[in-house]
């Protein structure tokens, strides 16, 4: 009886040491990490009640500049979600600079071109949504600079959670 128990214990120990038969592998390269934005980039528009609403775009807006340019070239306000961000026929990439936790967006318009304060929030929310969707920190804030007029201080989006 003792001999049977000893054989069983030794067999179990040998099997445990043998493992599952798969040998160790080296470090595996998983390839490049995904970059850019997924389809459906959120862009903030103003609804009929005057509130910011996120609308997913089916196209790829891969940079903050592309998303902001989309707002600046949107049609004039009318019924339904719209842009109050001002208008411009921008053709070049907008200057975007990041310092610490602040993104500065250079706009090719005057501050007076932005319709109401919600137009400022619309620009800030869109920039932050693109930033966060591409893996950026929710603690980041946005400063807007204009050709003429007072620039904004670093701001957070009032409808996005801040950390």
Automatic annotation (TrEMBL):
This is Sporulation and spore germination protein. PROSITE patterns: PROKAR_LIPOPROTEIN (PS51257). Residues 1-18 form the signal peptide. It comes from the Bacteria. Keywords: Signal.
């Amino acid at each position: 009886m003792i001999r049977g128990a000893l054989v069983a214990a030794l067999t179990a120990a040998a099997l445990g040491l043998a493992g599952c038969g798969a040998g160790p592998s080296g470090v595996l390269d998983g390839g490049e990490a995904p970059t850019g934005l997924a389809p459906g980039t959120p862009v903030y528009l103003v609804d009929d009640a005057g509130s910011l609403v996120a609308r997913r775009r089916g196209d790829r807006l891969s940079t903050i500049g592309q998303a902001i340019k989309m707002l600046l070239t949107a049609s004039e306000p009318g019924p339904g979600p719209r842009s109050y961000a001002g208008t411009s026929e921008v053709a070049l990439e907008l200057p975007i600079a990041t310092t610490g936790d602040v993104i500065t967006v250079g706009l090719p318009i005057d501050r007076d071109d932005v319709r109401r304060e919600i137009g400022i929030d619309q620009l800030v929310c869109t920039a932050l949504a693109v930033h966060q969707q591409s893996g950026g920190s929710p603690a980041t804030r946005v400063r807007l600079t204009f050709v003429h007029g007072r620039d904004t201080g670093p701001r957070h989006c009032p409808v996005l959670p801040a950390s």
